[in-house]
């Protein structure tokens, strides 16, 4: 699998699936989650309610329609909330591994990822990048291209340097 990094907005990526940094309730939020629900429109929330009546566990992944976005699917993951004391790194790497497994179930060949838990959930950026890259590299998958979408120039530079 090729791994690339771009600077930009996850909602604007021309890929099969975009990954959402969601929360356990799976009913929207701020950051990536807010942007994805805004760009995808109400169909995303409708599908979240229908397919995930009880939400999703931390470290897990599940898919919905991408609504009005170019991508076909949203793969929602729930990263650990470090600001609430969820410091288990395996919950963060699990998000990337499970997202690729769901992508394989869907037949998605290109997937765009945000830096899960690196925003509101307070994971230190350096380690969030390392967790992303090492897990994407180590997970066997049929996905051909994983794109890390860095929000801002300094994050892009950091991911590029580690790649
Ligand atoms: N495209 C790409 N990256 C983005 C975008 C965007 N449009 N917006 C922010 N980022 P966060 P988390 C970056 O907070 O830490 C929500 O309220 C951001 O700079 O979106 O997993 C959910 O509902 C950071 O580097 O996700 C949850 O409650 C990274 O994406 C909670 O926040 C992740 O930031 C999840 O927190």
What can you see in these coordinates?
- The chain has 163 residues and is of the alpha/beta class.
- It has one domain: 3-Layer(aba) Sandwich (Leucine Aminopeptidase, subunit E, domain 1), CATH 3.40.220.
- It is 38% helix and 20% strand.
- The protein has 5 helices and 6 strands.
- The chain has helices at 31-40, 42-51, 89-106, 125-138, 153-162, and strands at residues 2-7, 17-22, 61-65, 73-78, 110-113, 145-150.
- It has a 6-stranded mixed β-sheet, with helices on both faces.
- Helix 3 crosses helix 4 and helix 4 (125-138) crosses helix 5 (153-162).
- The mean pLDDT is 98.
- Ligand AR6 binds next to strand 2 and helix 1.
Q: How is the secondary structure organized here?
A:
Elements: E1 2-7, E2 17-22, H1 31-40, H2 42-51, E3 61-65, E4 73-78, H3 89-106, E5 110-113, H4 125-138, E6 145-150, H5 153-162
Parallel strand pairs: 1-6, 2-4, 2-5, 5-6
Antiparallel strand pairs: 3-4
Helix pairs in contact: 1-2, 3-4, 4-5
The chain binds ligand AR6.
Radius of gyration: 14 Å
CATH class term: Alpha Beta
Count of individual helical segments: 5
What ranges have pLDDT less than 50 throughout 5 or more consecutive residues?
none
Cofactors, ions and other ligands in the entry: ligand AR6
Describe the strand arrangement of the main beta sheet, using strand numbers: 1-6-5-2-4-3
């Amino acid at each position: 699998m090729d791994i690339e990094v771009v600077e930009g907005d996850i909602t604007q990526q021309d890929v099969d699936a975009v990954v959402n940094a969601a929360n356990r309730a799976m009913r929207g939020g701020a950051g990536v989650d807010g942007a994805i629900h805004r760009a995808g429109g109400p169909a995303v929330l409708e599908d979240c309610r229908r397919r995930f009546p009880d939400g999703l566990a931390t470290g897990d992944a599940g898919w919905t329609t991408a609504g009005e976005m170019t991508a076909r699917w949203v793969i929602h993951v729930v990263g650990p909330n470090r600001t609430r004391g969820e410091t288990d790194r395996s919950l963060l790497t699990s998000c990337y591994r499970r997202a690729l497994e769901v992508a394989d179930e869907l037949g998605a060949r290109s997937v765009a990822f945000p830096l899960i838990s690196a925003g509101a959930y307070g994971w230190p950026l350096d380690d969030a990048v390392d967790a992303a890259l090492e897990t994407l590299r180590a997970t066997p998958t049929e996905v051909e291209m994983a794109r890390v979408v860095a929000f801002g120039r300094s994050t892009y530079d950091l991911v590029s340097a580690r790649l």
